[in-house]
User: Fold this.
Amino acid sequence: MSSSPGSCRGEGFDVAGISEVLSMPSLARVPKSRITLPLSTALMAVAACSPSHADTPLGWMNSDHLNAYTLDAMKFDLTASSLAVNETIDFLNIREDLLAGTRQLEGDSGDLEGERIELQFGITSYLSAFYRRQQQNLTIDLGEIKSINLVDIDDALSTTATAYGLKWNFFESGYFDNTRAWQSASLEITRTENNTDDFSGSLDKITLSGNTTILFTQPQTFRVQDMDDEGWQARVLYSFPLGDALTTSLWAGYAETEASSGTGSDIKVTALAAAFDQSFEVEESQLLLGGGLNWQITPRIPLQLSYEYLRINTSDVTTVVNPSNVLLPSFLQANNVNKIDANDNHTLRGSISYWVTPKFNVSLTGKLFSNQFLGVIPHYNNPLSGSFSEQPYGYAGIQLGLQL
Assistant:
C-alpha cells in the first residue's frame, strides 16, 4: 500500500502545487476522535492519473510495513507480490542452512513459491480497513524412512494465511501537508486465519517394535491433517519524523491464537490405525514489539526496514496419542511437537520501491525469520513442520502496487 509521490502533470511530480493547495485554510485538519464498526470491503482497481491528497506522506509505502498512518477517505491501495526461495533465489543462504540442520530433509526442501495480496481502503481519513492474503507452497522433500515403506507422498505444505481488520488513527501532531512526515498514533485490530492442506502419503509396509513387519496387498493412505489456526492481534503504533526524508515507526502489541493439527489414516486394521490417530491443540498468547524506518531516498524511491520481536508468552499444548507398538516415522511422531524449545521469533523485513507513475510502483522485498514460522503460523507446531521450526528461514519477493 502506498501514497503516491504527487499529482500528474506531464511526466513529472507537481509537489509544489500540492503543497500550495494543502496549505489553504479551508483544508486545515480537524481533530481525530471517531470510531466506526468494522466494514467488509472489496476493490476494483484501475490505474488513474489525477491529483490526490493522501493521509500518508508522499511516496509512502504501507504494504507489509507497520506504521501509524491511514489512507485518506475513499482511497484504495492494492499490492500484489510474487514470493520465492529456490536454488537460485536462496535468501541469505537460508535454504542450504535448513537442509544442513535437519537430517530428514533433502533435495529441494525449503523451496517456496507463493503470492501475496494486500488491500487497504480509507473509510475516513481517520479509519482504514485492510485485507491481506498470502498463499505459499513450502517444499518438504523427505529422505529415507526406515520404519515404513513409502509408495507415494506429497512434497509440499500448501498454506493460506489471511488477516483483516481496522486501523484507527486517534492522534496526530505537526501536520502541515503530506510532503513531509508528522507525528501520528493509531490502534490496529487484526483477525488472523491460517490453514494448510492435508499432507498425505501411502505405504505398503509398517514396522512394529521388535522388528516385526506387516505388509499390505494394497497401499494404505496416511496424512498430517486438520492444520489450521485462528486468532486476533492488537497493536498500538506511533510514527514520527527523524528528518525531512527519514521517518520511524514504533509499536507494541498483544495476540492470542488457537491452533490445531493431527495425523490420521485410512488403514482398516483398527489396532494399526489407532497409532496414526493423533491430535494436537495449542493455545498461545503472544507479545509483540517492533520498529521500522522509512527513508525517502528521492520522491520516487522509498527504502524501508523493519524489525519485530514476537514472544510466546503462554502456551498450552494438548496432545492425544494412542498407545501402540507401531514405529511411526519421525515426521509423524508427537514428540516433534513437545520438544520445541524456542519461544520467540525475530523478523526482519526490507524493501526498496520505485514509483513508475504517481499511481503505480514496483518493489523488491525480503523477509527473514529467526525460527521459521514459529508463532507466525501457529499450526505449524505439528509433527511434520514442527521438526524444523527452530531453523532460520526467509524469502524474497517482487511486488507491484496500484493506488486509486
